[in-house]
Amino acid sequence: MVSEKKKDSVLAGFKAFLMRGNVVDLAVAVVIGAAFTNIVNSVVKGIISPVIGAVGTQSLDGYKSCLKSPCAIGPNGQSTGVEILWGSVLNATLTFVITAAVVYFLMVLPMAKYLARQEARRKAREGVQETMEITELAVLKEIRDTLVAQRTNGAHSAAPGGSRDAF
Fold first, then answer.
1. Quick one: how far is CA 144 from the chain centroid?
2. Cβ contacts of 61 within 8 Å, gap of 6 or more
């Protein structure tokens, strides 16, 4: 019995966690990000790497330096020596920079501008409401002051021994 209650509460908690808006938004973002990464990788490998490679004689992935000689392909197809594949690192760096730039300029920046506009509209609405409240308060104070002035003027102008109305 105790384990069934605990199991139900754990599953209920897990269900509540999954149904929160942030988790669903995050899942959608991950799926779109994965698909978008494939597009950026294709652009880097198909367009940018060959353009950069045109300066040299090969694609970016082929650029390497030999750390320990002899760096060559052995008879069994394995490379000998120790190679630093700096072209692959450059390729991955370009992919990252392009992905980050596209995400920033196409998603983050427009969303930040949209949220700033929404906030400005909200503040403008609050400012109008606040102005109305201040105006109402000023009118009420003026009415109060007028009533107090009428009361004080009425008290001074009343004949001695006469009755005064109280508010």
1. 50
2. 49, 85, 87, 88, 91
Cα gap 107→116, rounded to integer Å: 14
3-state DSSP percent of the chain in helix, strand and coil, to 5:
75, 10, 15
Residue 82's DSSP bridge partners are 68
Distance CA 36, CA 126 (A): 40
The C-alpha atoms of residue 164 and residue 167 are separated, in whole angstroms, by 10
Helix axes 21-43, 2-19, angle to 10 degrees: 50
Residues 66-121 pLDDT 10s: 877 777 777 776 777 778 888 888 888 888 888 788 878 887 888 889 989 998 88
DSSP-derived secondary structure for 55-107: HSSS-GGG--EEEEEEEEE-TTS-EEEEEE-HHHHHHHHHHHHHHHHHHIIII
CB-based burial label for 40 (10 Å; 0-12, 13-18, 19+): buried
Beta bridge partners of 66: 83
- pTM, to two decimals: 0.49
CA–CA separation, 49 vs 11, rounded Å?
49
